Amino acid sequence: MPCYRCGARQTDPIRGASPWKRGVREERQVLVCPNCQSLVDWRADLDQCAACHSAGLVCRLGEIECRDCGHVRTADRTTDALVASDAPGLSEEVEAALSRVLRRRGAPT
Q: Is 22 exposed, middle or buried (0-12, 13-18, 19+ CB in 10 A)?
């Protein structure tokens, strides 16, 4: 899943926890890359908890839960809308990567 602000793709961290942050925007789980986190007001675009106004939300199976106070509510969108990806070009990137890998394996050495 890419960063919702800049579109950068997440890579696996070398060791330890990922520097990427999760949030909910328009009732969909989103990721925020470390570069976009350096912006002063990056949390302003994220949905906030109705109980404590925190932006520390996670979206799971049609529910949105606040990590700070534990408040849980049902998402207004359907589960299918929550799972669908709006990432442009992802299928093309996967197809190109598979082609490269399969071509290398099939080539004589």
A: middle
CA torsion through residues 60, 56, 65, 5, sign: negative
What pLDDT does residue 108 have?
Answer: 56
Helix, coil or strand: residue 95: helix
d(CA 73, CA 60): 10
Residues 78-89 pLDDT 10s: 444 434 445 556
Residue 30 near residue 20 (C-beta atoms within 8 A): no
For the segment 17-26, what is each residue's pLDDT rounded down to a tens digit? 888 899 999 9
* Residue whose token pair is 């106004």: 53
Q: Read off the DSSP letter of residue 15.
A: S
Antiparallel, parallel or unpaired: β 72-74 and 28-32: unpaired
Q: Where are the domains of the chain?
A: 21-106
